[in-house]
From TrEMBL:
Belongs to the UPF0102 family. One of its GO terms (molecular function) is endonuclease activity. The keyword NAD does not apply. This is Putative endonuclease. Keywords: Endonuclease, Hydrolase, Nuclease.
Amino acid sequence: MSGLVSYLSGKAAEDRVLSAYSAQGYRLVCRRWRGPGGEIDLVLSKGDEAIFVEVKSSRSMAEAAAHLSRRQIGRLLASAEAALGFFARGSLTPMRFDVALVDGAGRIDVIPNALMVG
């Protein structure tokens, strides 16, 4: 049962984050995209920029942030490289990697370009 609870909690956090991005004019390209390195929670676009979003949720923002491991970052980067195929300019597409933290109360803290790529 805890696996289902985790899945539903993660999906709810992603829904909240997607809604926040959509309200700012971002367009969903793909959700929970699986690449060679693993899953990317949200692939978005705005203008000609690709935005890859990793959503982390926990009881507090600090706990959510602590869930992002160095290994996971490496897998995210590998998958994002493959996901650039969604964009007309391919590997020349301007991009950034955001981390969206969601706490137990549903508050969202987005860290734009958290991985300092591009």
